[in-house]
Design brief:
- The complex is a heterodimer of chains A (625) and B (739).
- Chain A is α+β, with helices and mostly antiparallel strands and 625 residues long.
- Chain A has twelve helices and 26 strands.
- Chain A has a seven-stranded antiparallel β-sheet. Chain A has a five-stranded antiparallel β-sheet with strand order 16-17-23-20-21.
- With 739 residues, chain B is of the alpha+beta class.
- In chain B, 34% of the residues lie in helices and 25% in strands.
- In chain B, the strands form nine sheets. In chain B, strands 13, 14, 15, 20, 23, 24, 31, 34 and 35 form a nine-stranded mixed β-sheet that branches. In chain B, strands 3-2-1-4-11-12 form a six-stranded mixed β-sheet.
- The longest helix of chain B is centred in the middle third of the chain and has 33 residues.
- The N terminus of chain B is likely disordered.
- Classes of the chains: A alpha+beta (625), B alpha+beta (739).
- At the A-B interface, helix 1, helix 5, helix 6, helix 7 and helix 9 of A face helix 1, helix 4, helix 8, helix 13 and helix 17 of B.
Chain lengths: 625, 739
């Protein structure tokens, strides 16, 4: 039963003709409103994850919940269909439960707040925003337990709840929630920061209505949705062939010794509709790497990656959703059934973008990018300091952007919009840490005509005894190269003990004890290369060497011989000819291995870890097969 | 999949986004930067002659304030981009001739310059070498890992190369802890050897920016000493001296930009100073800083990173001055040029400042007047993307060459200026800068290219272009007003620059900021601001401490010490203590927050209200800006005392009383507004008198600018020559302002 909206004024909104220029003006006004929401949030939030790294996303939707401006949005329509209750003026909903909002958010750390906006007794818009809380309770600090088997282990679950009613904060509810978190002051501040951003959106929406009239405002939002649909319709015709193409990629392991887990998707077009089918994906996992992928969200990803290439100033929105059909079988790793654990979904969420790129790119190889830094690896460190105060850090890492048609991939950058790193001086000032090294990893970017970006090596020296958690991937499979480009380097984590000795730290683990003086080198992966490395101008390779981004030995992957700081032209020509002959035709995709079996056999020698065991799927999850 | 044009547009749009976002990220208020100290060689009280000089892309404007004789003299000469000082010297000759004085009579030259900005924008700075701490050579390469744009923004974004190339970056073996203790002593022999190698690679400037150097700069300073021995002719900048603040990337970038522009700025300021001294004898050259303060020539050459917004700061100062004399303390400034528009907010006669300065895709942590720049101006090109049929304006610009189609210099793309010509707002017999003809036929042809795809008449398409560009400007005005917690209705709007007076009325209407003020000579406003800037000095100290852990007595003592330091410096510049005015600024936040707000208090207010007064004001301000306050602990971040010299009295001549503007009518015309042509008149501004009321629709022309008054509005000429545009029947609004 859909939610019941309580409106004092039952008058419907007639669709009126909106002058195209007025439409552009409304579009600009909403764009500005969204930017202001971000501004307010980043300035007032307290947790480093939101304040410094910007792990939070705003949106404004029309009265039916269709996103008009935003990203990672598109979930309100589903919420309104699924919420069994009343929606009234003055309500603000809080939820962190992926299962009750259809995957609008995908783990408990993300607090989603949704606010209906009323005008003269009628629902006219929605504002919503979610942000990643540093901690929401559960069995481990940071609330992302690698070994969780059920969502109940991952923190306090809040189904959609009116945390404001009639404009009044329900502080008893908030208090219960905060009492379950390890860093309640941060949660509280971040909570109010999000509320402030929503209130700002409300003001802007009301100003627009005053300015243009409510019917024009509502109709303009429909027109904006239509505009996206028209544009997307043309794009789908252009880049999605009727012939079926397929692509697959993997998450290396689940932190419990099992893996890799496959996600697979096929794409084809029927008439004007593009069909994405995830039927070949593995069933849900017994650990917490499952990713509850909202179909509407996936459509939004597809739109974002294509429409903005054609009209970068457009506000992309939900308008085209009937032109994309997304099929995800229930019980598969992208549509796990409750109570499957979800906290460590970040790897799968990232890998979806590599998958989508590989799939769409087959229709337009010139526009195809290599595999990128498709993850947001987490590092967590917590404990009690000498003064007896609890400290807890949650930090997102960055790696190599892949080689792309437009050029080399930047070194150590974010694939996620708005994200920034935490300044190391900030870390040292506020946490018992010393960052010994913060540099790009030489030779980690895949070789190509356009080089993949290098990963980053962060050397964390611990100053207090504590525990760390690591959430990372691509230690086994490689970030692939395309159009002749080579794969990038894998990730590694090395813990050098003050007491002597070194440990190879697996890519997913919790509660690793550390002592003062221990240093963890967290090395992220490089981006894949784009295009034939033998075609890269030798002078560019030399520049990379001079800049410390490629070694003299690494230059040979490009067939470039450097001696005494100069390109040895004859030797380079000779080497390039040899390599071209030996290699033959370049490959569209270079994964760095021919078969999973082969990769498993190489695992121990190359990574120091035993290969993961093929996952065993429980009977009740068979629905996906 | 998409054309190069689209990619460029995308790229530029992304850049605009990153700039907008960075603008929003920064904390409010100025930051602790050691104020450049200037020392005049003689007391300024002795003589009244002050010269303001503003160098623009086309013209160099000069304005002479002659207090003794109560007059203002202006002059305009062509700029000389190859060496701007030539234009400045030509201008000085001209203005002296017109004022009947000799250059030697001028005691002070206050100069707003874009030389630092242009060096960045045209990538023509020095080859900079960089020294970092071991393990941090990639600080600029990694930056903040931020990729502009939304989801998938990385697909089309190419990062520009660091201003200090990686191949010219070396690492020092040393390490400071976060509390300033030395963890690893500096290996002097190693860095000396590295510097020797580096000096052989053709560097022209050197930056030393070490990790945690903001807490203890000892190693930076020692390396600087060694560098001066190894490469005595290379200017050296050290991170903590330029920006004594946390955040290694921002500090390094700021210091590198300082090095990057330093040789060019030093050469320019140095040669200007020696030329001026040669002609004028003992005079005092001061350069306007980004934050609206003044810098001695020596300080400008040392820390030119503080001059990146010197040009716009002059405009804001001028606007402030003009508006004050017209009786308006709260105003939004709107300076619209050919390719970009600068907006800023002035409250109670003071411009808001912020701690970041952005030029192109370079962002530095140097305090500047909170000027937001929109990449839209008279030359912005309108286009209609095939796929979406939306009307977009900018960010591409026709620039000075070929310029708008109407200029007849070969431009074919429709620009905002062309739209204004089509609509009759920019009459075809108006003259730009005195001698440029306007071709209406060419403007119509150009606008016709977008009218077709839009399915509109040429006039309606032109009106659409103007509406869109106004909306973009409105967004920028919002950033400086609403987003900072101000209601634009409490402000007047002042429009200047070449195109500001054309759009001011429409913008005032959009944001309800009345009146729209068009100052006399909108083109020389920057020079006016340069000449009227008050001398100002400040002393500051970073002081991070929870409020509960300090006391009124401790903070009071620190603030008065800072005041004494700032005041002493100003006194040595010739401003007596009696003329000085002091203000305390306290940076404060909730413990755990990254931003901070700056609370202003007079020394007297602090003595009465103390820390409790500061936290109360902070809570109020926080609530005003962000709709909530917290019961969290308060934390002080920085203390500052600002001391200013006395204000210069207004000495512009009053305008003769008019009566009726009929005598100023040049001829009848027609304007296209709200979808229809309406009859209107064109006026000659030079012939208007005080008290004249011009009914809209009307156009007022003067030498370098054109003012548009819309239907339903009227322009009232005040006694000092401003045109104040109000909605007809505005008396109720006036009452509100007066409140």
């Amino acid at each position: 039963m859909p939610a019941k909206v309580i409106e004092a004024n039952p008058k419907p909104f007639p669709r009126v003709k909106v002058d195209p220029i007025t439409l552009d003006i409304v579009e600009n006004a909403l764009r500005n409103a969204r930017a202001e929401m971000d501004a307010v949030l980043f300035r007032t939030a307290m947790s480093p994850g939101i304040r410094e790294q910007h792990d939070a996303f705003p949106m404004i939707a029309n009265q039916e919940g269709k996103m008009v401006v935003g990203q990672f949005g598109s979930f309100l329509y589903g919420f309104m269909q699924g919420y069994e209750g009343e929606i009234e003026d003055g309500d603000i909903f809080l939820s962190n439960d992926p299962y009750s909002v259809g995957g609008a958010i995908s783990h408990l750390n993300d607090w989603l707040m949704m606010m209906p906006i009323f005008h003269e007794g009628r629902l006219v818009s929605w504002a919503a925003m979610f942000g990643h809380m540093t901690d929401v309770g559960g069995k481990v600090p940071g609330s992302l337990p690698t070994d969780a088997k059920m969502i109940y282990e991952e923190g306090l679950i809040v189904p959609p709840t009116k945390v404001y009613r009639g404009g009044e904060l329900q502080d008893e509810i908030l208090n219960i929630i905060l009492a379950n978190c390890r860093m309640p002051e941060w949660n509280k501040s971040d909570f109010f920061a999000i509320i402030a951003a929503l209130r700002l959106a409300e003001r802007r929406v009301r100003e627009n209505i005053e300015r243009f009239g409510v019917d024009t405002y509502i109709s303009a939002m429909w027109d904006m949705l239509d505009r996206n649909r028209t544009a997307m319709g043309a794009i789908i015709q252009m880049i999605v062939p009727e012939k079926v193409s397929t692509f697959e990629d993997w998450i290396d392991d689940d932190g419990m010794g099992n893996g890799p887990y496959k996600i697979a998707c096929s794409l084809h077009r029927e008439g004007e509709v593009a069909i994405f089918d995830f039927a070949g994906s593995d069933p849900q996992s017994l650990s917490s790497i499952n990713f509850l992928l909202n179909e509407e969200m996936f459509k939004m990803f597809v739109g974002a990656f294509t429409i903005s290439l054609f009209d970068p100033q457009i506000l992309f929105n939900d308008g085209f959703y009937d032109l994309v059909d997304v099929r995800i079988p229930a019980g598969c790793i992208l549509k796990p059934q409750k109570p499957a654990a979800l906290s460590c979904r970040t790897h799968m969420l990232g890998r979806i973008f590599d998958l989508m790129g590989g799939l769409l790119g087959q229709g337009a190889p010139d526009a195809l990018n290599a595999a990128g830094f498709s993850d947001s690896p987490h590092f967590m460190y917590s404990g009690y300091d000498k003064a007896g105060e609890w400290y807890q850090l949650y930090q997102i890492g960055f790696g190599g952007i892949p080689g792309r048609p437009v050029g080399d991939g930047p070194d150590g950058h974010s694939l996620w919009p708005a994200f920034t790193n935490v300044p190391n001086e900030f870390l040292e000032a506020y946490f018992p840490l010393r960052i010994r090294v913060y540099e790009t990893i030489i030779d980690s970017g895949g070789a190509g005509l356009h080089r993949g970006g290098n990963g980053i090596s962060i050397g964390y020296e611990f100053l207090e005894p504590g525990e760390i958690s690591v959430h990372d991937d691509r230690w086994l499979t490689y970030p692939w190269g395309v159009n002749g480009g080579e794969p990038g380097m894998r990730s590694t984590k090395r813990l050098v003990r003050a007491a002597g000795g070194e440990e190879n730290i697996p890519s997913k683990c919790d509660r690793v004890s550390v002592q003062p003086g221990d240093i963890l080198y967290f090395n992220t992966w490089g981006g894949g290369g784009w295009g034939d490395p033998l075609q890269r101008p030798a002078e560019k390779v030399l520049s990379d060497v001079e800049r410390g981004l490629v070694t003299v030995e690494g230059a040979k992957r490009y067939g470039v011989v450097i001696a005494s700081g100069k390109v040895d032209q004859p030797a380079t020509e000779k080497l390039r000819a040899q390599m071209a002959k030996k290699r033959g035709e370049t490959k569209l995709f270079d994964r760095g291995f021919e078969s999973l079996d082969e990769l498993m056999r190489r695992a121990k020698a190359e990574t120091g870890f035993e290969p993961p065991k093929p996952p065993v799927f429980k009977q009740f999850m068979k629905a996906a097969e | 999949m998409s054309g190069t044009e689209d990619l460029i547009r995308t790229y530029e749009a992304r850049l605009a986004e990153i700039e907008a976002r960075l603008a929003r990220m920064e904390g409010a208020g100025p930051v602790a930067v050691p104020a450049p100290v200037s020392r005049a060689s003689r007391s300024r009280a002795a003589t009244g002659l002050r010269l303001g000089v503003d160098v623009g892309g086309t013209f160099t404007d000069l304005l002479l304030l002659d207090e003794a004789r109560g007059r203002v003299v202006t002059a305009k000469v062509p700029s000389t981009p190859e060496d701007s000082s030539v234009g400045v010297l030509n201008g000085i000759e001209k203005i002296c001739r017109e004022a009947g004085i000799t250059p030697g009579d001028i005691a002070e030259v206050m100069h707003g310059t874009t030389v630092a900005t242009n060096t960045v924008l045209t990538s023509s700075g020095a080859v900079v070498g960089l020294v970092t701490t071991k393990g941090y050579k990639d600080t600029l390469q990694i930056a903040r890992s931020y990729v502009p744009g939304g989801l998938g923004g990385w697909v089309i974004w190419n990062k520009s190369l660091p201003l200090a190339p990686l191949e010219l970056t070396i690492e020092a073996e040393e390490r400071m802890a976060a509390d300033g203790t030395v963890l690893t002593a500096l290996n002097e022999a190693a860095i000396r050897a590295e510097l020797k190698t580096l000096s052989g690679k053709g560097i022209e400037a050197l930056t030393i920016s070490l990790f945690n150097g903001y807490v203890n700069p000892a190693h930076e300073l020692r390396i600087a000493e060694i560098a001066r021995e190894v490469m005595p002719h290379i200017p050296v900048s050290t991170g903590a001296a330029i920006m004594p603040e946390m955040y290694e990337y921002e500090r390094t970038e700021t210091c590198v930009v300082n090095s990057y522009v330093r040789p060019v700025v030093s050469k320019y300021v140095g040669s200007l100073q020696s030329e001026l001294t040669r002609r004028m004898g003992d005079m005092n050259l001061q350069i306007l800083r980004s934050d609206g303060g003044l810098s001695s020539a020596a300080a400008a050459m040392e820390t030119p990173v503080n001059l990146l917004m010197s040009g716009p700061a002059g405009g804001v100062s001028g606007a402030k001055w003009i508006a004050k004399n017209a009786g308006f303390g709260n105003l939004l400034t709107f300076d619209m040029g050919g390719t970009s528009t600068d907006v800023a907010l002035i409250e109670g006669g003071e411009a808001r400042t912020r701690r970041e300065t952005r030029v192109g895709d370079v962002t530095v942590r140097a305090p500047s007047i909170d000027v937001r720049t929109v990449g839209a101006g008279g030359g912005s090109i309108a286009y209609v993307p095939d796929l979406t049929k939306a009307l977009r304006v900018g960010p591409q610009s026709a620039g000075a060459v070929p310029g708008p189609a109407a200029y007849g210099a070969g431009g074919e793309a429709p620009t905002v200026t062309d739209a204004n010509v089509v609509l009759g707002y920019l009459p075809s017999d108006a003259r730009l800068g005195g001698d440029m003809a306007i071709r209406r036929d060419l403007a119509e042809t150009a606008v016709g290219t977008i009218a077709g795809p839009l399915g509109k008449s040429v006039e309606d398409a032109a009106e659409g272009v103007v509406a869109i560009v106004n909306e973009n400007m409105c967004g920028a005005l919002r950033l400086v007003s609403v987003e900072q917690g101000y209601d634009p209705r409490d402000f007047a709007l002042i429009g200047f620059g070449g195109a500001g007076p054309l759009h001011a009325n429409a913008l005032a209407k959009l944001i309800n900021a009345w009146p729209a003020i068009i100052p006399p000579g909108p083109g020389v406003l920057c020079a006016y601001g340069d000449a009227t800037t008050r001398l100002r000095n400040e002393a500051s100290q970073t002081f991070v401490r929870r409020v509960a852990e300090t006391s009124d007595a401790e903070i009071g003592r620190m603030l008065s010490e800072l005041e004494a330091a700032a005041s002493g410096d100003l006194e040595s510049e010739g401003v007596g203590r009696a003329e000085q005015e002091a203000l305390y600024q306290i940076d404060i936040r909730y413990h755990g927050q990254g931003m901070k707000l700056t609370i202003d208090m007079s020394p007297a207010e602090f003595r009465t209200d103390g820390l409790a007064g500061i936290t109360r004001r902070f809570d109020d301000e926080h609530e005003k800006l962000f709709t909530f306050a917290l019961d969290a602990e308060h934390e002080l971040v920085g203390l500052r005392a600002v001391v200013q010299g006395g204000e210069k009295p207004f000495i512009g001549g009053e305008l003769a009383q008019g009566g009726t503007p009929a005598a100023a009518v040049i001829h009848d015309t027609k304007l296209y507004v709200d979808g229809a042509w309406a009859p209107a008149k064109i006026y000659d501004r030079a012939k208007l008198g005080a008290g004249d009321v011009i009914a809209g629709p009307a156009v007022v022309t003067e030498m370098d600018s054109t003012t548009l008054i819309l239907p339903g509005h009227e322009g009232i000429v005040d006694k000092v020559g401003n045109i104040l545009i109000w909605p007809q029947g505005h008396e109720a609004l006036t009452a509100r302002k007066a409140r």
